[in-house]
Amino acid sequence: MNKSTIRELTFKLLYSLEVQKSFEDEDIELYFEDTELESEQIKNQIKEDVKNIIANNDELIKQISNNLKSDWKLERISKVNIALLKLAIYEMINKKVPYKVVINEVVELAKKYGEDSSSSFINGVLATVVKENDLA
User: Fold this and answer.
1) d(CA 89, CA 43)
2) Domain that includes residue 81, residue range
3) CATH number of domain containing 90
4) What tens digit of pLDDT does each residue of 67-110 get?
């Protein structure tokens, strides 16, 4: 299983938790009951990333809020976009994954799972995050 597929599965779990508004271990385990994974190692990697994203939720939300255009409010953003932004910001800042890789893959996920405008919206927010955090 490649990194892109693992990123997509991580996004799907984050999105599921966002929709349920529940971030408990039981909810994470339920997700894995319905998802066939090649190895326990991949499952553990996804769990670790999701738990770290949950643990850093306040900082991630702050990063998103601070990098929205002035006429946008956090409440206006879809759950798909929130999950994608949290994942991308976490990977760029905390895991030090190169921003070009993260943005490219998350924009592709936005095209696949989001609304028509999701990819350009996410690209714009993440470009600002990169500048604000001096990640370039």
Assistant:
1) 21
2) 3-132
3) 1.10.940.10
4) 988 888 888 899 999 999 999 999 999 999 999 999 999 999 99
